[in-house]
Amino acid sequence: MTAQDPRLQELVLLRKVRDRIDREYREPLDVAALARGVHLSAGHLSRAFRAAFGESPYSYLMTRRIERAMTLLRRGDMTVTEVCFEVGCTSLGTFSTRFSELVGMSPSQYRKVAAADGQGIPNCLAKAVMRPIRNKEASARTAD
């Protein structure tokens, strides 16, 4: 592949979108805004992002938000509602539903259980060790 290869150029744009989500997960991001930022249509961005990274831009954004929420909930100094808004979610119900899907328990249950789980684990490792697992990933792991 050369620098002029359209597939490579598209992967560069997709990486920019993923990096933007990583940086701006607290902001009100939607697929249309992300697509405008790299001069692609929303539909094309969604299809290409899923093909490249295995999930939609929205799913990737919500995973980043839930990962950050898990860290804040482990600290224990914020309520679930405060955490919800801190990570960029605007609906407590949507946040709680998505959190439960990814983590396997409600945010309030996680807050109670996880307070002691992360003790002694350096922050640099906690993200990798305590990363949320999607239901389909969990099913694949148990099938092995």
Automatic annotation (TrEMBL):
Keywords: DNA-binding, Transcription, Transcription regulation. It comes from the Bacteria. The keyword Membrane does not apply. One of its GO terms (molecular function) is sequence-specific DNA binding. Signal peptide: none annotated. Coiled coil: none annotated. Gene3D superfamilies: Homeodomain-like. PANTHER family: HTH-TYPE TRANSCRIPTIONAL ACTIVATOR RHAS-RELATED. This is AraC-type DNA-binding protein.
